[in-house]
Amino acid sequence: MSVLIREERPEDVAGVRRVNEQAFGQPQEAALVDALRAHDAVLLSLVALDGDRVVGHVLYSAVRLESGGDALEGAGLAPMAVLPELQRTGIGSELVARGALELRERGCPFIVVLGHPEYYPRFGFVPASRHGVRCPWEVPDEVFLLLPLDAARLPRTASTARYRDEFSSVTEGEGTSSRSGT
Questions:
Q1: What's the pLDDT at 156?
Q2: If we measure between CA atoms, which residue out of 45, 50, 14 comes closest to residue 30?
Q3: Is 9 exposed, middle or buried (0-12, 13-18, 19+ CB in 10 A)?
Q4: Is the per-residue pLDDT at 45 higher than 80?
Q5: Residue 69 confidence (pLDDT)
Q6: Looking at residues 147-151, what average pLDDT do you find?
Q7: Is residue 25, in this structure, part of any structural domain at all?
């Protein structure tokens, strides 16, 4: 399947919501996207189109690496979604690769993702701990990944990734928060 990848436009909002709700089987990730948009916190939002239908979406928001009194701003990939019937067709890979390319061109020093350890390494992601970066949540080391886009700018001392508040405040039901990159 050949899809067009481009930046999200206002007319894509309903399609982006539908893709995220269907891909995750719940409204939480779609609500996260809406909250990040509402707070002007989106660094990059890409859609995959089949004709005029949104079939995939990836969003990047600001993440800070804090080390002592220093901070470096980069990007967090979350969420990334493809319609269930089109998963495993390469659409998600196209979205992630294009996002990394565009962020590198914009001078972004890194991307972090909380995601599948078998999926993201194909794009150059490695466990963030290899760069001394800790996740703010208790997760297995192999699922919190970092893609250095400009390794020379990464902190030389241990740091913690700080996501936008929307990642902790967007809740559904029993108070679980959305943290998934996939």
A1: 86
A2: 14
A3: exposed
A4: yes
A5: 83
A6: 96
A7: yes
Structural domain count of the chain: 1
Distance CA 147, CA 178 (A): 21
Tokens of 53: 């239908």
Predicted confidence (pLDDT) at residue 74 exceeds the cutoff of 90: yes
Task: Dig out the tokens for 101 from the structure.
Answer: 């390319």
Q: 112: domain CATH number? A: 3.40.630.30
Q: What are the distances in angstroms from CA 64 to CA 60, 74, 151, 154, 179? A: 13, 6, 15, 11, 15
Give, in order, the Cα–Cα distances in Å from 176 to each of 28, 61, 117, 168: 9, 20, 22, 8
Cα dihedral sign, 179-5-52-83: negative
What is the percent of the chain where pLDDT is above 70? 93
